[in-house]
Specification:
31% of the residues lie in helices and 27% in strands. The chain is of the alpha+beta class. It has a single domain, classed as Aminopeptidase. The relative contact order is 0.13.
Length: 185
């Protein structure tokens, strides 16, 4: 049994959100697609291996706090094909200091669906499944930061009941609109 399968995936009608462990992230960072595939239990998308900055960030997060493990990145797997169509995860554990004013006790999430799998509803389905899982863990509020030019993500946020609560200038990504919603919705 692979390391990932010790933690049950979060499932939705078409998707499994499979935990990306530190060992998987290390293999991905090394560019060892075969080992990463073995560890994940599914073929690893080439696009994933290009996410080096994110991989390093999450390895460091896991090393700094092993309690972060269930909140870290998950591969978005289309169950019917076994394809890795993207990734999703929380930036931190619930209740980080930087969200105390906007969403006390809340958590921020992010996601990517690889280009060839877009416009099929995978992002919306994955976000809804991840929120449902975290709400069951008593997370009261969810936050998304989205570029004002990212129309598909803006539509996903609106469709899932997120409301704009502010904006900020991200040093790397530029202007981002901040959206939040309650967990129980």
């Amino acid at each position: 049994m692979s390391e990932q399968h010790r933690v049950a995936p979060i499932s939705s009608p078409r998707l499994d959100l499979v935990l990306m462990t530190e060992a998987f992230l290390q293999a991905s960072l090394a560019g060892d697609r075969a080992q990463a595939t073995t560890l994940l239990g599914y073929p690893v998308a080439a696009e994933w291996l290009e996410e080096r900055d994110l991989i390093v960030l999450r390895i460091n997060d896991l090393r700094a706090n092993p309690g972060y493990r269930p909140w870290t990145l998950r591969a978005i797997i289309e169950r019917a094909s076994g394809a890795m169509v993207g990734h999703i995860g929380f930036h931190t554990m619930p209740g980080p200091e930087y969200l105390q004013d906007l969403a006390p006790g809340g958590i921020e999430l992010g996601y990517t669906v690889f280009p060839q799998y877009r416009r099929r509803g995978f992002a919306r389905e994955a976000v809804a499944a991840l929120i449902s899982w975290a709400a069951a863990q008593a997370v009261p509020r969810f936050v998304l930061a989205i570029s004002p030019t990212n129309e598909p993500s803006l539509r996903i946020a609106a469709g899932l009941g997120f409301q704009q609560i502010g904006s900020h200038e991200d040093p790397k990504d530029g202007l981002e609109l901040i959206f939040a919603r309650d967990g129980a919705a």
